[in-house]
């Protein structure tokens, strides 16, 4: 049942994967193509400017041509307007893709199997959603069009220059490898440093995040000093990387400027000589310089493109991997009313990992409207049984049936709608009491209904005393309600959902005795008229149960009523004595 993860092996950019990913978002290609076309037009107009400038400059000696000047200004404006239109269109295109991509990833994440969440850190998942999608958008709507126009500029400018003066152009062209030879090692080095910094930053981010989210543990363990040290180490290595980066960054700038100056001086010297000879016009020389400046931007774009490409390549791979993970199947199965049907677990084997057995040959049944209790040593697999019943995981062997139907043939949404679950510390979301009660439910609920279930759960009083009643915010992870209150809210929620099968996993285990009594009473009301499976940690729950299963090492080692088990099952007797002698 565990899916093999697709091994990330290739580091090369896979165009096929990338296109596949993009195709799934059904992009508005017309925006891309129109944006690209406009970008080329704008570049074409820009390329025309130096040629006009040449004529303008050359015409100075005869007479000033005002129309020519106006013409050049108009060209500039025109190219700016077209450029802006092109940029906007490409931006729209990219935003549209990233929006759909994020929707796809978010949908995927929500529908993945629970086993995926056991293995992958939530930070990694949100990074797919936030960072990786951004990388892909950047490549698509910025770098790729940038590359196309850059190539167009370079080829166009080069062609025009060749046409204008091939000798001068070739001299310039030969200087390009020279410049590259100087710049490339620096660029490579600073790229590598950038990489190290990213990795270090990610690690630093993860470490601090972990520490801050467990701040109570840090304080209680007097671990501030230790955490502070850890932080300092990370901050220190970031500092060292920063120093190196500062050097390379500030070396790169001046060298680049020096090289450019050299080129310009060279062209000016050679050009002036040619002008003096009369084989070249002043206008042509200036126009050459203008082209040279026009080439600088595209050259940088070319260099950066490969960085973006390699980033987007990693992102594509990671998103692809995520998209290939298997999902829970919400389409299969029909709606089945579980009311009045016996829940049967038949010879189930299960392990979280492939080579592991947590449950083996486990069988039990729960007749409608009875209370079935599970008891046994910690780690025996009781909560795992509940996870299987909730269909977070699937058994490797055996079957779970409701009546004669396998629960796999009940539609997942319908199945989960009919089971209620209250655990040791019930989950609560940031939001109001009302939000928490109706979470996931689609209907409209009147206040009176909500108060009614709160009353059944012995939660009415404390909610009434809250400053804003049902609309009181409970804080992140419900920090503003106590453990007992949280449990009673979970029970109120269960009342509202009115499940046919109720599962209680040590629901009162973490409570003080006063809260425990109240939660227990609320649970007893909730259990009425439902099939209840309860993982017990209180003796009274076991004693009152219609049937008890004693779970040891993933196996049922004894079943029956309390008295029967006490009489026949030695381990059970010992367990009850050690666990419950305080009751
Ligand atoms: N998500 C999980 N992934 C891997 N192993 C798990 C997971 N949850 C529980 N286990 C393991 O399964 C075994 C049974 O755990 P559990 O069902 O929680 O026992 P119980 O509820 O009886 O105390 C334990 O050995 C536990 O370490
Ligand atoms: Mg448990």
Salient structural properties:
583 residues; alpha/beta; ABC transporter transmembrane region fold; Rossmann fold; 3 domains; six-stranded mixed β-sheet; four-stranded antiparallel β-sheet; 10 strands; elongated; binds adenosine-5'-diphosphate; binds magnesium ion
Describe the structure.
The structure is a single chain. By secondary structure, the protein is of the alpha/beta class. It folds into three domains: 10-164 and 298-328, ABC transporter type 1, transmembrane domain (ABC transporter transmembrane region fold), CATH 1.20.1560; 166-279; 343-580, P-loop containing nucleotide triphosphate hydrolases (Rossmann fold, 3-Layer(aba) Sandwich). The chain has helices at 15-24, 29-60, 66-111, 114-119, 122-164, 166-213, 215-220, 224-277, 282-324, 382-389, 412-417, 433-437, 447-456, 460-465, 483-497, 513-527, 539-544, 562-568, 570-580, and strands at 343-350, 359-366, 371-375, 397-402, 405-406, 419-422, 501-505, 531-535, 547-552, 555-560. The strands form two sheets. It has a six-stranded mixed beta sheet, with helices on both faces. The protein has a four-stranded antiparallel beta sheet with strand order 2-1-4-5, covered by helices on one side. Helix 5 (122-164) packs antiparallel against helix 9. It is elongated, with a radius of gyration of 35 Å. The relative contact order is 0.09. Mean pLDDT is 87; it is low at 1-10. Adenosine-5'-diphosphate is lined by residues 118, 352, 358, 378-384.
């Amino acid at each position: 049942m565990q899916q093999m993860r697709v091994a990330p092996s290739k580091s090369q950019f896979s165009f096929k994967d990338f296109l596949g990913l993009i195709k799934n978002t059904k992009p508005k290609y017309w925006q891309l193509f129109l944006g690209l076309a406009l970008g080329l037009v704008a570049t074409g107009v820009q390329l025309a400017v130096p040629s006009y400038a040449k004529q303008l400059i050359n015409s100075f000696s005869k007479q000033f041509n005002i129309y020519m000047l106006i013409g050049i200004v108009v060209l500039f404006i025109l190219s700016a307007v077209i450029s802006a239109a092109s940029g906007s269109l490409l931006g729209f295109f990219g935003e549209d893709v990233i929006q759909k991509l994020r929707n796809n990833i978010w949908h995927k994440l929500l529908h993945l199997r629970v086993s995926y969440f056991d293995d992958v850190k939530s930070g990694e998942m949100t990074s797919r959603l936030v960072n990786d999608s951004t990388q892909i958008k950047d490549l698509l709507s910025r770098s790729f069009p940038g590359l196309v126009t850059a190539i167009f500029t370079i080829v166009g400018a080069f062609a025009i220059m060749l046409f204008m003066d091939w000798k001068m152009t070739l001299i310039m062209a030969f200087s390009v490898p020279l410049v590259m030879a100087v710049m490339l090692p620096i660029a490579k080095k600073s790229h590598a440093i950038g990489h190290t910094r990213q990795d270090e930053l990610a690690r630093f981010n993860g470490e601090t995040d972990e520490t801050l989210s467990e701040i109570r543990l840090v304080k209680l363990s007097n671990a501030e000093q230790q955490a502070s040290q850890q932080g300092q180490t990370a901050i220190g290595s970031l500092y060292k990387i920063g120093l190196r980066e500062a050097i390379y960054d500030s070396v790169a700038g001046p060298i680049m400027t020096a090289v450019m100056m050299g080129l310009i001086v060279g062209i000016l010297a050679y050009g002036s000589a040619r002008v003096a000879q009369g084989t070249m016009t002043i206008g042509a020389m200036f126009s050459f310089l203008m082209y040279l400046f026009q080439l600088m931007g595209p050259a940088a774009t070319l260099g950066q493109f490969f960085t973006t490409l390699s980033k987007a390549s990693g992102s594509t791979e990671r998103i692809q991997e995520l998209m290939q993970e298997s999902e829970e199947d919400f389409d299969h199965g029909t709606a089945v009313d579980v009311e009045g049907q016996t829940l049967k677990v038949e010879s189930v084997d299960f392990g979280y990992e492939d080579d592991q057995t947590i449950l083996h040959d486990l069988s039990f049944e729960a007749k409608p409207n009875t209370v079935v209790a599970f008891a046994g040593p910690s780690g025996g697999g009781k909560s795992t049984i509940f996870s299987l019943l909730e269909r977070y995981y699937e058994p490797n062997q055996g079957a779970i049936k409701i009546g004669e139907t396998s629960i796999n043939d009940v539609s997942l949404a319908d199945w989960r709608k009919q089971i209620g679950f209250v655990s040791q510390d019930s989950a609560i979301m940031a939001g109001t009491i009302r939000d928490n009660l109706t979470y996931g439910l689609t209907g409209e609920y009147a206040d009176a209904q909500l108060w009614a279930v709160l009353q059944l759960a012995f939660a009415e009083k404390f909610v009434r005393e809250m400053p804003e009643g049902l609309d009181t915010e409970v804080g992140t992870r419900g920090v503003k309600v106590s453990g007992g209150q949280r449990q009673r809210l979970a029970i109120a929620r269960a009342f509202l959902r009115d499940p046919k099968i109720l599962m209680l996993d040590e629901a009162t285990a973490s409570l003080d005795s006063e809260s425990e009594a109240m939660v227990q009473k609320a649970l007893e009301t909730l259990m009425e008229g439902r099939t209840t499976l309860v993982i017990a940690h209180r003796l009274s729950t076991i004693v009152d149960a219609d049937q008890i299963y004693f779970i040891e090492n993933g196996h049922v080692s004894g079943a029956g009523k309390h008295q029967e088990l006490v009489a026949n099952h030695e381990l059970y007797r010992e367990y009850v004595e050690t666990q419950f002698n305080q009751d």
